[in-house]
């Protein structure tokens, strides 16, 4: 005969409770695991949903989060909830220093996507002990979350690309990181790491640091030329020259969520890049520049053409600085890319703010709709 447990109820009456059998104990443990991971998944999805709703104003992404939460709720039965034992859960006191702070919205979202995906994998496996259909349901849900992550991260990157009107292309410098950070403090949101001559070990180290720096300020980091290095450092995309790999191959390697840009010097190259699926193009060089030694300037006429014919974001580039930016703007440019005017500036923050002020001056401000 099993030994019974005795408990004193709140009114002082002692009651006898028959202990669970071993099978029932295992069942209760499984229920507790399911309950904890259902909670974890729903909470993580809600955090992601709030950013889709309020941060991105994207009804489609927010709606997908809501749909997934509602599907989870169908499995979160009273039977599973009844097994919850918060007081006796040793995991409530476990923590990690990385959970105490988030460096950026991106890191917050990635942490919660990881949380949701891990919890769904637990639900998929332990759910097989609860219901024949539970494992299948959470397997499919896990794949939907992978798709949601790609869509959300890609949408965020492309939205920020459209909002970016000043683009810093770096050049080798002893003050590389200090210069970039100063520009980021001035409001810069788009950086391309460009170094044609350093060893890959140096490029990897510098690009990794720049990616961390850019993401801490909510900016994008694009790698020049090298798709492999873009993947290695988790950059936001790659910029390809006319002699670099085809855009279709780069897209196959990078996926739809990352950004691909292409340099163009004339209207033919511009239309080819657009048709091949570039997310943005460089238009130039507008003026002769040592960065593109020996390459004839495309001039302001190409700027005028791009302003009338490019349906994707484009950046006028080549010899643009504080002295001539308004000529480029008057020709139709809303976005410019610069190298020397920031990399060689004594006060990159102030120069960034000035360039942005000129670019912001020509853009119509969105109308505020009163609710």
Automatic annotation (TrEMBL):
<protein>
    <recommendedName>
        <fullName>Thiamine-phosphate synthase</fullName>
        <ecNumber>2.5.1.3</ecNumber>
    </recommendedName>
</protein>
<feature type="binding site">
    <location>
        <position position="225"/>
    </location>
    <ligand>
        <name>Mg(2+)</name>
    </ligand>
</feature>
<dbReference type="GO" id="GO:0009229">
    <property type="term" value="P:thiamine diphosphate biosynthetic process"/>
</dbReference>
<dbReference type="Pfam" id="PF17792">
    <property type="entry name" value="ThiD2"/>
</dbReference>
<feature type="binding site">
    <location>
        <position position="224"/>
    </location>
    <ligand>
        <name>4-amino-2-methyl-5-(diphosphooxymethyl)pyrimidine</name>
    </ligand>
</feature>
<dbReference type="InterPro" id="IPR013785">
    <property type="entry name" value="Aldolase_TIM"/>
</dbReference>
<dbReference type="GO" id="GO:0000287">
    <property type="term" value="F:magnesium ion binding"/>
</dbReference>
<dbReference type="GO" id="GO:0009228">
    <property type="term" value="P:thiamine biosynthetic process"/>
</dbReference>
<dbReference type="InterPro" id="IPR022998">
    <property type="entry name" value="ThiamineP_synth_TenI"/>
</dbReference>
<keyword id="KW-0479">Metal-binding</keyword>
<dbReference type="InterPro" id="IPR016229">
    <property type="entry name" value="TMP_synthase_cyanobac_bac"/>
</dbReference>
<feature type="binding site">
    <location>
        <position position="244"/>
    </location>
    <ligand>
        <name>Mg(2+)</name>
    </ligand>
</feature>
<dbReference type="Pfam" id="PF02581">
    <property type="entry name" value="TMP-TENI"/>
</dbReference>
<feature type="region of interest" description="Thiamine-phosphate synthase">
    <location>
        <begin position="145"/>
        <end position="371"/>
    </location>
</feature>
<feature type="domain" description="Thiamine phosphate synthase/TenI">
    <location>
        <begin position="166"/>
        <end position="341"/>
    </location>
</feature>
<feature type="region of interest" description="Unknown">
    <location>
        <begin position="1"/>
        <end position="144"/>
    </location>
</feature>
<dbReference type="InterPro" id="IPR041397">
    <property type="entry name" value="ThiD2"/>
</dbReference>
<dbReference type="GO" id="GO:0004789">
    <property type="term" value="F:thiamine-phosphate diphosphorylase activity"/>
</dbReference>
<dbReference type="InterPro" id="IPR034291">
    <property type="entry name" value="TMP_synthase"/>
</dbReference>
<comment type="function">
    <text>Condenses 4-methyl-5-(beta-hydroxyethyl)thiazole monophosphate (THZ-P) and 2-methyl-4-amino-5-hydroxymethyl pyrimidine pyrophosphate (HMP-PP) to form thiamine monophosphate (TMP).</text>
</comment>
<keyword id="KW-0784">Thiamine biosynthesis</keyword>
<feature type="domain" description="ThiD2">
    <location>
        <begin position="32"/>
        <end position="150"/>
    </location>
</feature>
<dbReference type="InterPro" id="IPR036206">
    <property type="entry name" value="ThiamineP_synth_sf"/>
</dbReference>
<feature type="binding site">
    <location>
        <begin position="289"/>
        <end position="291"/>
    </location>
    <ligand>
        <name>2-[(2R,5Z)-2-carboxy-4-methylthiazol-5(2H)-ylidene]ethyl phosphate</name>
    </ligand>
</feature>
<dbReference type="GO" id="GO:0005737">
    <property type="term" value="C:cytoplasm"/>
</dbReference>
<keyword id="KW-0460">Magnesium</keyword>
<comment type="pathway">
    <text>Cofactor biosynthesis; thiamine diphosphate biosynthesis; thiamine phosphate from 4-amino-2-methyl-5-diphosphomethylpyrimidine and 4-methyl-5-(2-phosphoethyl)-thiazole: step 1/1.</text>
</comment>
<comment type="similarity">
    <text>Belongs to the thiamine-phosphate synthase family.</text>
</comment>
<feature type="binding site">
    <location>
        <position position="292"/>
    </location>
    <ligand>
        <name>4-amino-2-methyl-5-(diphosphooxymethyl)pyrimidine</name>
    </ligand>
</feature>
<feature type="binding site">
    <location>
        <position position="319"/>
    </location>
    <ligand>
        <name>2-[(2R,5Z)-2-carboxy-4-methylthiazol-5(2H)-ylidene]ethyl phosphate</name>
    </ligand>
</feature>
<keyword id="KW-0808">Transferase</keyword>
<feature type="binding site">
    <location>
        <begin position="192"/>
        <end position="196"/>
    </location>
    <ligand>
        <name>4-amino-2-methyl-5-(diphosphooxymethyl)pyrimidine</name>
    </ligand>
</feature>
<feature type="binding site">
    <location>
        <position position="263"/>
    </location>
    <ligand>
        <name>4-amino-2-methyl-5-(diphosphooxymethyl)pyrimidine</name>
    </ligand>
</feature>
